[in-house]
Amino acid sequence: MRFCDFFLLFLLPLLASCAERKVYIVYFGEHSGQKALHEIEDYHHSYLLSVKASEEEARDSLLYSYKHSINGFAAVLSPHEVTKLSEMDEVVSVFPSQRKKHTLHTTRSWEFVGLEKELGREQLKKQKKTRNLLEKARYGDQIIVGMVDNGVWPESKSFSDEGMGPIPKSWKGICQTGVAFNSSHCNRHGDTVQSPFQDEDESGPIRVHTPWSVRDRGLHVTHNLMCPASLLLRKLIGARYYLKGYESDNGPLNTTTDYRSPRDKDGHGTHTASTVAGRRVHNVSALGYAPGTASGGAPLARLAIYKVCWPIPGQTKHLYRTSQPFTYAKDGIAIGALHATKNNIVVACSAGNSGPAPSTLSNPAPWIITVGASSIDRAFVTPLVLGNGMKLMGQSVTPYKLKKKMYPLVFAADAVVPGVPKNNTAANCNFGSLDPKKVKGKIVLCLRGGNTPENGFDLPADPHLLPATAVSSEDVTKIRNYIKSTKKPMATIIPGRTVLHAKPAPFMASFTSRGPNTIDPNILKPDITGPGLNILAAWSEGSSPTRSELDPRVVKYNIFSGTSMSCPHVAAAVALLKAIHPNWSSAAIRSALMTTAGLVNNIGKPITDSSGNPANPFQYGSGHFRPTKAADPGLVYDTTYTDYLLYLCNIGVKSLDSSFKCPKVSPSSNNLNYPSLQISKLKRKVTVTRTATNVGSARSIYFSSVKSPVGFSVRVEPSILYFNHVGQKKSFDITVEARNPKASKKNDTEYAFGWYSME
Question: At what angle do helices 563-580 and 268-277 cross, to 10 degrees?
């Protein structure tokens, strides 16, 4: 089984740099019959040959030939060639590779979600009588996790192979070599592929700190401990990199900014891979913060690394926001994930980092587990004390400290060099904007982009190069008022400390992208939320903790935030569930996670946003994931590949599988057997059907309960379900009716939220 923050197929090429010719994906649907790989490539080449002037041009234009899950290829085409290919009978669709759609949605967390409990003596005695989830799942052994991201730092201790058994027999992948990445970094050296761009000197990793901005598919990556080439028991069992589409768009890779290989030079991929499947490593910290044991959720799962994220020329390594999603027929990730689902591969994707605005989430297809980001109960408290005695609770993971005294305090906009525009960016402390004479020996208040009231108390714990702390937008107002109130404003920063059991937690991260779903407003997204704020995990030693070229530091572990951090948490839970329930479908696993998710924080109140206001399902989906409960959900809402095709028929997408013919009448999208229910623009009354499958006790009874949305009535029939064997299916109807139909017509853009359950 493979899954990742996005999917594992190779729909990766990007737009070509030429104004006329661009990278397109030519999609044929399913593979028909049994063909050798070279036969499939020849088949794809024949189509290019029919629109190109010569065989050489046809060969040169072909970037990737998709030979496994889907049938198609990526090539550089002109508009005229696209038109000709689109008119051919066997071609389902031709659509452009979306150039900037996918960005990096950038460990206490496993204790916080209940996977590794903090147990007292009596609890330990009780636990010995029953195996916990990790033991039942054999810590993810024999499960393969595919991570699609920006590479891996294989020497990290989080990817040690010590004590691991043989690799799964089902593994068919390869280890592709390249710069600073050779066959010893994977365990199947008999299946290695020599890169045509490999440097002669591969003796060790290269440490160069350069800025780069990631262009990613929000995914996940992997790493492993370097071992002698004779060992065959590695955690990292495969690695590949995909560069052709990127270079078609941007020209040759600048090798000072990244490795032409699966090696990670940024840190993001190493971080996500170790979160999902990193080994337990004791006595680690991030610059002295969060000390303890680092571990992935499925520490014995194997990792397959697919590097697809590369530095964008002229841009820096910031956490990019995600663009609006594309319709399913033009969304390579949605198409690839659909075919993966047919092969029972579970696909988990990050929702994106474009919050707190509504309708910003990506990856909304119902066959994908879409994951939002929330906090854990750990803080890195670094207070700021003002000259008037006011103490403001900031956060930071800087290792640098001030002397125990007060320092002059200045607002950045009042300390800029001549010529800096007096606009909204004057206070951002941009490079070269501050006057050294005005800031020397002082504490400077800098405004971080995006530090707005909507961000609430969601504070990033950054590894600053100076003594520093991050404060909320509300506290910024207090600081500025203080500066204006005195001729000599003073302040100091108290050294930071790690605080556990912070409350309330979880709360939703301000950056997590929100619903409603813009592709289909009858499918509720995201599905679930998980820890994504200030997460500690392994890091690339080819990068720095700030990912800045000005930062000379090298760390083995780092703290990072994003939905790219929350998604591997859910992916690890998927790995454990798959190990315990190998026959469950991808839909059953998603259902188990969603129907057992939690809705309250650690003070027993409903989950809030970062400002303390009640959050809603457009932020957290079904709630905060609870992996131990998901292992025994009782009932699941199962969905087949055919169900998804019927769903697509209903919303007008009829070409993703050419072998399937849509019926004259297909079920409404509301009737997709999904664990949640969303009804858009309800005028009067709607009845939908759900089918529950018993995966709990053979003889069991479930009672329905409902909390109706304000202004609506909800009725479940039958209200009681009786089961007498495992695997038995029972259907029930849910009728939702507007109490005041006239009012609902006037307010059809507003949403109300409620709950139903079978328990």
Answer: 30
Question: Whole-model pTM?
Answer: 0.86
Cβ-count burial of 357 within 10 angstroms (0-12 exposed, 13-18 middle, 19+ buried)?
A: exposed
Q: Is 660 helix (H, G, I), strand (E, B) or coil?
A: coil
Alpha carbons 632 and 438: distance in angstroms, whole number: 62
Q: Which structural domains are found in the chain, ordered by start?
A: 22-96 (3.30.70.80), 104-118+132-188+231-374+509-653 (3.40.50.200), 379-499 (3.50.30.30), 681-758 (2.60.40.2310)
Mean pLDDT by 10 residues, the chain (759 residues): 32 36 88 80 92 91 86 91 91 80 67 71 45 90 94 95 85 93 70 35 28 28 25 75 92 95 97 96 94 94 94 70 78 92 93 94 96 97 97 96 96 93 85 94 89 80 96 95 97 96 96 96 97 97 94 96 96 97 97 98 97 96 97 97 96 90 93 96 94 97 96 96 98 94 63 94
Distance CA(143)–CA(166), nearest Å, equals 12
Cα-Cα-Cα-Cα torsion 223, 225, 230, 236, nearest 10 degrees, comes to: -20
Which residues participate in catalysis according to the annotation? 149, 268, 564
Look-up: residue for tokens 């594992």?
A: 8
If you write DSSP's letter for every residue of 390-444 in order, what string do you get? -EEEEE--------SS-EEEEEGGGSBPTT--SSTTTTS--TT-B-HHHHTTSEE
- Tell me the CB-side half-sphere exposure of residue 64, using CA atoms within 13 A: 26
Beta-bridged to residue 72, according to DSSP, are 27, 66
Q: Say if residue 282 is exposed, middle or buried (CB neighbours under 10 Å; 0-12, 13-18, 19+).
A: exposed
Q: How far apart are CA 602 and CA 512, in angstroms?
A: 20
